[in-house]
């Protein structure tokens, strides 16, 4: 397993050193979303362009990332951007759920309550690819918030979009 951990570490460091989709987008039309993890001091700023009239047909046409923080938070935001850019909002939500399941399955195992079977269902049929590299983070529970910061920030932004569309 040492070989796999080395590979994971390399993927994380690669995203940290050469973050994808860094920058800003004009607001509006883009939305600016900000997230902060006080436990570690990580800051994430997302610029998200969503195209499409209906909530179902909406696509994340562009996404840029700013902010600063530890290697885990920055690598995770870079990986997230690469994973959801160009995807539909529905696909992005699926990925967010799957990624958070990946993080919390291990969390619940660490805490010894259950084996996370419900969460495993969320992961079914979702390809996480490089994102699986971040599962090593769960060995350090205080870092899980670092890894999920960008994802929670995006999820919040998408939910606000949906509630605006509904009102
Ligand atoms: Zn952090």
Structural class: alpha+beta
Shape: globular
Pattern of helices and strands: HEEEHHHH
Number of domains: 1
- What CATH architecture label applies? Alpha-Beta Complex
How does this model look, in words?
This protein is an alpha+beta fold. It has a single domain (2-166), classed as Sufe protein. Chain: A (Alpha-Beta Complex), CATH 3.90.1010. The protein contains five helices and three strands; from the N terminus they run αβββαααα. A three-stranded antiparallel β-sheet has the order 1-2-3. A hairpin with a 7-residue loop joins strand 2 (42-51) and strand 3. The longest helix is centred in the middle third of the chain and has 23 residues, at 89-111. It is globular, with a radius of gyration of 16 Å. The model has no long low-confidence stretch (mean pLDDT 86). The site of zinc ion has 8 residues, from helix 2. Residues 37, 40, 42, 69-70, 72-73, 146 line the site of zinc ion.
Short description:
The protein is built from five helices and three strands, in the order H-E-E-E-H-H-H-H.
Question: Secondary-structure blueprint of this entry?
Answer:
Layout: H1 2-17, E1 31-37, E2 42-51, E3 59-68, H2 71-84, H3 89-111, H4 117-123, H5 144-166
Features:
50% helix; 3 strands; three-stranded antiparallel sheet; globular; binds zinc ion; alpha+beta; Sufe protein. Chain: A; single chain; 167 residues; 5 helices
